[in-house]
Amino acid sequence: MALNQLLITFAIVAVVLPQVVLATEFVVGDNSGWTINFNYTAWAKDKEFHVGDKLVFKYPAGKHNVFKVNGAEFKDCVIPPVGVAQNTGNDIIPLAAEGEKWYICGIAKHCESGGQKLAINVLPATEKWTAPAPAPTIPSSAKEILTSRYQLLVAVTVAIAMILNV
Ligand SMILES: *[C@@H]1O[C@H](CO)[C@@H](O)[C@H](O)[C@H]1NC(C)=O
Ligand SMILES: [Cu+2]
């Protein structure tokens, strides 16, 4: 009885886990966070952002903020007239739609002089693993690790089931 419950739990985890872990939270600037004199173009360059992922802007509250802007405002570091800043110091921005997104800091000349601006391109949502086979075109090494972890989990589940002869 308890054994069956364990196996059912494994099976549920094996199905649910990949869809959970494939939504990535990107801490903007990694350990540097959201700050001046950091090259966010270089930071974003080799990353793939997908619908369903999240950006997390981390900084000491009050020192910076985050405005979502359009391409022209990004280029000229202009704060949008009706824009509302995120300013908690731990601003989580879900990427809800595909396409180019632009973010700037609106404090002093951080954007203009400090280069505190981030442009990203958001790709369609990652394919669900419930599809017959994973798409062969997912290039990110992070996802390959996740895939192999998932395959490991499935293999372990199957092995346990076989050993226990259920
Ligand atoms: C930031 O990085 C990008 C991409 O690596 C590079 O093209 C650009 O010149 C860098 N900008 C500065 C200000 O260093
Ligand atoms: Cu700033």
TrEMBL record:
Any one GO cellular component localisation term in the record: plasma membrane
Keyword Cell membrane included in the entry's annotation: no
Signal peptide: 1-23
GO BP terms: response to symbiotic fungus
One Gene Ontology MF term: metal ion binding
Transmembrane segments: none
Protein name stated in the entry: Phytocyanin domain-containing protein
Species in which this protein is naturally found: Kingdonia uniflora
Lineage start: Eukaryota, Viridiplantae, Streptophyta, Embryophyta, Tracheophyta
